[in-house]
Each structure stands twice: as C-alpha cells, then as structure tokens.
Amino acid sequence: MTPDPQPRSDENTGTEAGGVVELSESECWRLLRAADYGRLAVAINNHPDVFPVNHLVDGNTLVFRSAAGTKLAAAVLGRAVAFEVDGHDAGVAWSVVVKGQARLVERLDEYLDAELLPIRPWFAGSKPNIVRIDTEEVSGRRFHPEGDGSGG
Q1: Burial (0-12, 13-18, 19+ Cβ within 10 Å), 62
Q2: DSSP label of 59
Q3: Whole-model pTM?
Q4: How far is CA 81 from the centre of its chain?
Q5: Can you list the domains of the chain with their CATH numbers?
Q6: pLDDT tens per residue, range 75-130
Q7: Which of 46, 57, 58, 104 has the fewest Cβ atoms within 10 angstroms?
C-alpha cells in the first residue's frame, strides 16, 4: 500500500528548496502510520546493513518483530538506528526518516501490550522478539521527480 501522497493542510513546514518541500512532523507520522513496510538501517562494528521490515507506529515510537540476528543485535546493543519509508503517486514522491535508539522490549507489561499490536511477520518463522525504536528525530520531504520516475 502506498500512503496517500496528497497534501494535508498541516503537512508542510513551508521550507522549499529546488522543488523539495520539508514535511511537518505530523505529516511524517501520518505517512509512517500508512506505510506497510520500511527499511531499518543499522551499523554493527562499522558494518552498515539495511533490512526491510513491516512495522507499526505505537505513539511516537516504531515497533517491529525480529528473530535473532543483526536487527536484534542492533537493538540489544542499544545502537542508534534509522528507519525510512517512501512512496510515490501521481508525479509526487516522498520520503520520511526516523532516527532513534532501538531497544529490545523486555519489561513484561510493555511486552504484553506490544503483543496485542496487530503486527505479524511477512513470512513463516518464529520472530518472538519485539523491538521498539524510541524516536529522537523525524523528518520528511516531498518532491516531484524529473522524467518518468523510472530512475533511468
């Protein structure tokens, strides 16, 4: 699902440079809530990695499930992460980036609350770990790509 790229009355901060419009924080959260998936960027031992994950917005945080591996290691180590969603429609493209700290949800009350959230893995396999990104910065942009948008 591509979130509705149509402007809302409170969407823009008014900052425009070269056809790029900075989005308001509320518009960024609206687009994050509407996106089906995003990309988690982590770095472990100076080795960057990016993972597609389905997510859910819970308050001003992002939540996703994970099996053991690099995504979970990034959360357990308490490292800074970035999360990005983007989309395009009718000649308008947009991108939203969240920066924050990922952490494993370990407190029983928080884990039980997160278990009730309607987020499920894309493919079969156990993903018992719940990771929460505590947001420190949210930014977004909207722009009109040149050409046909095919990148070629």
Answers
A1: buried
A2: T
A3: 0.77
A4: 10
A5: 18-143 (2.30.110.10)
A6: 777 678 999 999 987 888 999 999 999 988 767 666 667 666 667 666 666 667 78
A7: 46
